[in-house]
Write a structure and sequence with these properties.
The structure is a single chain. By secondary structure, the chain is α/β, with parallel strands linked by helices. The chain has 15 helices and 13 strands. It has two domains: about 250 residues, HUPs (Rossmann fold); about 100 residues, Uridine Diphospho-n-acetylenolpyruvylglucosamine Reductase, domain 3 (2-Layer Sandwich). Strands 4-3-2-5-7-6 form a six-stranded mixed beta sheet. A five-stranded antiparallel beta sheet has the order 9-10-13-12-11, sandwiched between helices. It is globular, with a radius of gyration of 23 Å.
Length: about 375
């Protein structure tokens, strides 16, 4: 990230923004039971604004407002720039008079995790959430607030739409979530990026701008700087980002209802064996109507529970696995993402197992699956 100078605008007062923040009708529900709240602060404008909205002008904080602790995770992936971000967060926390806790990660371990299980972005995100969970536990925080906002949600919706995601993916992220045992709160989900930049400027805050946010090599950057502005220019509706985010939130609510049913279906039919751990579902459940329509959801849940991550393989992998279940015969094997192997047993069970290493012979894989 590179330092970005702050500017001020007289159009709206910072007091107005803070009153709007604490006046959000959903906020007491999102923070229900939270007496001590961790705030993820990267040093970027969005998270800097969130920290200020939570801590600035103490006289405007409601009586139920939680105590605030700032958290920063340094992945170490950007060398001196990452260290500069850490220093900036310490300075901001000192000005706002809140304690700050930092977790430094090993960049080589993150890269190794990415080589084993997916992209560097996914690996960094997963390790960051695990680090935040550890910081929250040690700081006795019941939840962690993140600065994801309306524009982030609209960008995520478009990216996943272009990748062919289903209901779960298009729903994006919720204002409240449990991820890897961590309670997350996103109190800016109704706020725009422009709003948050104005908050930071009015408050006279310094923040850092990640140079990768302008790199057209990344799809999110192209969506942010090219596709969304084009939609804004050519739509007859209110701001495109707001409408896309609204659609994503509606889909997220519908997905929650569907997920509850899928979870019940999964728990009813799931089978499991240990040493090593293998998880299975009846093939009939996945190919016979009426339940077959839920096959992609059940397969995604199967893999997520097997590898114990909220980030299962991408949609294309799920579709490939669904096609395998529909067309393969008993005894068939297939390897999918993250060293996961699936096998159809003679009893009609689709078993899944995550190999400890990539190169394991077919005969050895079959011996593992056939173990009682």
């Amino acid at each position: 990230m590179t330092p970005r100078p702050s500017k001020t605008s007289p159009s709206v007062s910072i007091e107005t923004f803070i009153r709007q923040f604490w006046g959000q009708p959903e906020l007491p529900q999102w923070l229900d039971g939270v007496t001590r709240l961790g705030v993820g602060v990267s040093g970027g404008g969005d998270s800097v604004a969130l920290l200020y909205l939570l801590t600035g002008m103490p006289e405007l904080r409601p009586a139920w407002a939680p105590e605030i602790v700032a958290f920063h995770v340094n992945h170490g992936l950007r060398g001196a720039q990452a260290d500069a971000d850490e220093t900036l967060v310490f300075q901001l926390a000192r000005v706002q008079k809140v304690p700050v806790h930092v977790r430094r990660l090993d960049p080589e371990r993150i890269r190794a995790h990415a080589r084993r299980n997916g992209s560097l972005e996914d690996a960094a995100r997963e390790t960051r959430l695990i680090a935040l969970r550890g910081l929250a536990d040690r700081s006795h925080c019941q939840a962690v607030a993140l600065a994801h906002h309306q524009d982030d949600l609209a960008e995520t919706f478009l990216m996943r739409l272009l990748r062919g995601s289903g209901l779960r993916g298009l729903g994006g992220f919720a204002p409240e979530a449990q991820v890897l045992g961590l309670r997350l709160v996103r109190p800016l989900i109704h706020w725009s990026r422009a709003d948050l930049q104005q908050v930071a400027r009015l408050a006279g805050l310094e923040w850092a701008e990640d140079v990768m946010n302008a790199d057209p090599a990344f799809l999110r950057c192209r969506v942010r700087h090219e596709i969304l502005p084009c939609l804004e220019r050519h739509t007859d509706h209110p701001p495109a980002a707001r409408m896309l985010a609204q659609t994503a939130r509606r889909l997220e609510r519908e997905n929650r209802a569907l997920s509850a049913y899928i979870e019940q279906l999964y728990q009813t039919h799931r089978v499991e064996r240990t040493d090593p751990r293998r998880v299975g579902l009846p093939v009939g459940l996945l190919v016979q109507e009426p339940e077959a329509i839920f096959a992609p959801y059940l397969l995604r849940l199967l893999l997520a529970r097997l590898i114990e991550t909220p980030f299962p393989p991408e949609e294309q992998r799920i579709l490939e696995l669904e096609n395998f279940v529909q067309t393969a015969r008993s005894g068939s094997l297939m390897q999918t993402a993250r060293n996961i192997v699936v096998w159809i047993s003679p009893e009609g069970i689709l078993w899944a197992w995550q190999k400890p290493q990539r190169k394991i012979s077919r005969d050895e894989q079959l011996r593992v699956f056939r173990k009682p």
